[in-house]
Write a structure and sequence with these properties.
Elements: E1 11-13, E2 27-32, E3 36-42, E4 53-57, E5 60-65, E6 70-73, E7 81-87, E8 101-105, E9 111-117, E10 127-130, E11 136-138, E12 142-144, H1 150-155, H2 160-172, E13 177-180, H3 188-197, E14 200-203, H4 218-224, E15 229-234, H5 248-258, E16 264-266, H6 269-277, E17 283-285, E18 311-315, H7 328-345, E19 347-351, H8 356-362, H9 366-379, H10 387-396, E20 398-399, H11 404-411, E21 416-419, H12 422-430, E22 435-439, H13 442-451, E23 455-457, H14 476-495
Helix pairs in contact: 2-12, 4-5, 8-9
């Protein structure tokens, strides 16, 4: 298992380590800024007291830094690495054309991993490059669907969760502007511009660690970038907790990202284990940005007694595949029947996150509604027995948001959120609404473990009422853990030099 990396706590005087021969593999550059470098050493690295670091700026050797120049940064108890802050002994301009900074071991001349980067600005607002966005950005840090005709919105599967996590990541980051990086048809000129005009690139949190991801030319692009590349809250996707062996294309991408940052920020221990299984060991558990979208270090849920719960948001997920659901037919049957019971027992609203048939109902497209009814019948979702209730729900109790801000506004009117969409529950929690995940795949289970979110077993929903699973006391662990996870995310961003607003 790969454990979370220790967080930065405070600076202390560096204590000399026992003398021994240093190895390039013992050290790693966590961040390079115009002002300082964060260097880490493995717990077993015993040669740091003798090892000097050669600093070059703009390709020219500038200084040799001895251990006396290192300020130890106190790790958390049980940490696997020690961290040191090294002030750069000269002033580096924060202009776009600032020079590269390079760090090598003097004893061997080896480049320290992640030790050749364009330094991050410390005071100027950064220009960011996003590698795989979702939706359209507006008002600096807000995301909505593209301005498409309604017919195209209905017919295109656009996962609202992708909008949520991208919007949440933007709200966490500090930046002047964000531009979409071309990972398909980029040219040498594009690469040169990215390296000269941008300060860092990032990959939003999503299910990017699995066997089926199509990366286009992302691996090649990342390898050619001189700016840092951050992945924040990414995760592995599987139907069960199994090790995933990445194909060559995916492995190339993750190795390139691992070489361009101090640590890859993953949503949970399972994702870190999958990366380690593929030889990538600089992963740190940070959770999901969607939980931190309000940028608040403490979070209080509006916990009502069960007899005061009226409005319940149920997040629907009919769209699935073999690496999401363990038993698809049973998964759909349990979900459908629980939704119908929930409708009988509360003022339920079904939140939509991408499926075409439901969007046809929501947008009241007469032709597509007829097609949707036929499709839902063919799939066995709509039956003669449930038709009256199901059509009433679909005609009057659906919610679909075309912007993330709309979801925030809606979810605050609810008393409880439960269902099959991670981004039907996480943003509810972020907005102070108690939310519960269903344990049907490893993503849900991993996030529940990371944040201590109440997790209901899928089979227990087969006959359950929502009153059987909801208690205010169930959310106490989440509220305690949230503060620790927020602090850990902030420490991770600080240590990696990521400009942020936490």
């Amino acid at each position: 298992m790969v454990h979370p990396q220790p967080a930065i706590a405070g600076e202390t005087s560096a204590a000399p380590l026992p003398a021994a021969e240093a190895s390039q593999a013992d050290f790693r550059v966590e961040a390079i800024t115009c002002d300082h470098v964060i260097l880490s050493a493995a717990a077993h690295a015993t040669g740091l007291s003798k090892e000097n670091i050669v600093l070059s700026i703009g390709g020219r050797r500038f200084a040799t830094l001895s251990p006396a120049a290192f300020l130890a940064v106190a790790p958390q108890a049980g940490g696997e690495r020690s961290y040191f802050k090294i002030r750069i002994p000269t002033e580096i301009s924060e202009a776009a054309n600032r020079p590269d900074v390079e760090l090598r071991l003097r004893s061997t001349g080896e480049l320290i991993p992640n030790g050749l980067r364009k330094p991050l600005p410390g005071t100027r607002r950064a220009r960011a490059l996003v590698l795989i966005p979702a939706g359209s950005r507006y008002d600096h840090d807000k995301i909505r669907l593209h301005n498409w005709p309604v017919s195209r919105i209905i017919d295109t599967y656009s996962n609202i969760g992708d909008l949520m996590v991208y919007d949440s990541t933007l709200k966490m980051l500090g930046f002047e502007t964000v531009e979409v990086g071309n990972i398909t048809t980029f040219t040498d000129k594009d690469v040169d511009r990215y390296n000269s005009e941008f300060d860092f690139a990032f990959l939003r949190g999503s299910n990017f660690i699995h066997e089926y991801m199509e990366w286009e030319r992302a691996g090649e692009l990342i390898e050619r970038l001189k700016i840092p590349v951050f992945a924040i809250g990414v995760g592995a996707q599987a139907e069960t907790k199994r090790m995933i062996t990445l194909p060559a294309q995916g492995l190339r991408v993750w190795q390139a990202i691992a070489d361009h940052c101090g640590a890859i920020g993953v949503r949970g221990a399972y994702s870190a284990e999958v990366l380690a299984h593929n030889g990538i060991r600089n992963a740190e558990v940070v959770g999901c940005p969607s939980v931190f979208r309000r940028c608040q270090p403490a979070l209080e849920l509006n916990l009502k007694p069960a007899f005061d719960i009226r409005n319940i948001a149920f997040s629907l997920r009919r769209e699935t595949s073999g690496n999401y659901a363990r038993h698809i037919a049973r998964y759909l049957e349990i979900q459908r029947d629980f939704m119908l019971r929930l409708d009988q027992e509360s003022r339920m609203t079904v939140t939509l996150h991408g499926e075409r048939e439901e969007k046809a109902f929501f947008f009241r497209d007469v032709e597509r509604r007829a097609e949707a009814i036929a499709s839902l019948r063919q799939q066995g979702w709509l039956t003669d027995e449930n038709a009256a209730q199901m059509l009433r729900i679909y005609d009057s109790q659906l919610f679909f948001n075309t912007s993330v801000a709309q979801y925030d506004e809606f979810i605050r009117t609810q008393d409880f959120a439960v269902g099959y969409r991670v981004h039907g529950v996480l943003p509810a929690l972020a907005n102070g609404v108690p939310g519960m995940l269903v344990n049907y795949d490893e993503r849900s289970a991993e996030l529940a473990e990371t944040f201590d979110i109440p997790l209901v077993e899928e089979e227990s929903l087969a006959k359950a009422s929502w009153r059987d699973i909801y208690t205010p006391e169930a959310f106490a662990p989440f509220q305690r853990t949230y503060k620790k996870r927020y602090a850990a995310m902030k420490a991770y961003l600080d240590r990696n030099g990521v400009p942020h607003r936490l």
